[in-house]
Amino acid sequence: MPKFLLDLSERTVATYAEALIGLLLVGGVTSLSALQSAAVAAVPAGLAVIKGALAAFLGRADTAALLPAAADPASRE
Q: What is the structure's pLDDT at 20?
């Protein structure tokens, strides 16, 4: 379980950072403030958590990847 939580945490933080940076870069187009961008960036991060939780049942149990064990590169370690 710790490996899964670490994997899911990394994916969630990365998704949030990518969404926030993207929103800040196009701030002039979206007319969102930095605080609004931070709030909006939480939506894809939340979706990443949901996807990771589903992946625990559909993919390998110890990762947040949706790949089946046969196709997951981590299975070949």
A: 94
